[in-house]
Design goal:
With about 200 residues, the chain is an alpha/beta fold. The chain has one domain: P-loop containing nucleotide triphosphate hydrolases (Rossmann fold, 3-Layer(aba) Sandwich). The protein contains five helices and seven strands. A hairpin with a 3-residue loop joins β3 and β4. It is globular, with a radius of gyration of 16 Å. It binds guanosine-5'-triphosphate (GTP). Guanosine-5'-triphosphate binds next to α1. This is Probable GTP-binding protein EngB.
């Protein structure tokens, strides 16, 4: 994807009305601090348009980034941050559910998992929940640069087993430091979800 312009168009909190967008939406979920903002910045070719937080749990809203007036990247609130109150966790859950149920343009949900660790109980719950909502999440295994190359396959397997993935689920290892995986994600989005394949010559 050639990024021509980006715009953080809508920010929704727990009481907000969600937008009724006309363009396709691609959403990103993941536990707090997994590297979601860093991924979204990398996809947009920006250093710090989406906030990268030193404080986990900062992303408490659903943010809609308009890309080229062509589609939206949708940043969902990070989950699993211990310091968030139970009440807030429930409210965020409801907000995400409202979005997953309500959006008419949501084409795909990417779930981010830290490649270094076994998926947490929250990760597993989130994965199962997204599947229950009728989506087949694509897994992005983040912070790839933190592993030695020889460890990668083992860790990909760990993620697969830990989440008990539906057979055939894609896992894309990604690093926002080296940008490895970035092109693969865009290619998947463009060909599978935006239908931007080259028109066949008549
Ligand atoms: N080494 C390395 N560090 C990363 C990578 N991605 C993110 N980080 C670091 O991990 C921390 C969290 O990154 P964010 O992108 O803010 O994570 P987030 O998931 O948006 O966090 P919340 O705002 O809590 O939801 C930051 O210190 C980043 O610099 C990566 O691919 N490699």
């Amino acid at each position: 994807m050639v990024i021509k312009n980006i715009n953080l168009e809508t920010v929704c909190g727990i009481t907000s009305k969600l937008p009724e967008n006309e363009l396709p939406e691609i959403a990103f979920a993941g536990k707090s601090n997994v590297g979601k903002s860093s991924l979204i910045n990398a996809l947009m070719n920006r250093k710090s348009y989406a906030r990268i937080s030193a404080t986990p749990g900062k992303t408490q809203t659903i943010n809609f980034y308009n890309i080229n007036e062509e589609m939206y990247l949708v940043d969902l609130p990070g989950y699993g941050y211990a310091k968030v109150s139970e009440k807030d966790k429930i409210e965020w859950g409801k907000l995400i559910e409202r979005y997953l149920h309500g959006s008419k343009q949501l084409r795909a949900v990417f779930l981010l998992i830290d490649i270094r660790h076994d998926p947490s109980a929250n990760d597993k719950m989130m994965y199962d929940w997204i599947v229950e909502q009728g989506f087949e999440p694509i897994i992005i295994a983040t912070k790839l640069d933190k592993l030695k190359r020889s460890q990668v396959q083992k860790h990909v397997k760990m993620v697969k087993t830990g989440l008990n993935l539906v057979p055939g689920t894609k896992i894309i290892p990604f690093s926002s430091v080296t940008k490895q995986g970035r092109d693969e994600i865009w290619e998947l989005v463009e060909t599978e979800y935006l239908g931007n394949e080259e028109e066949a010559e008549e």
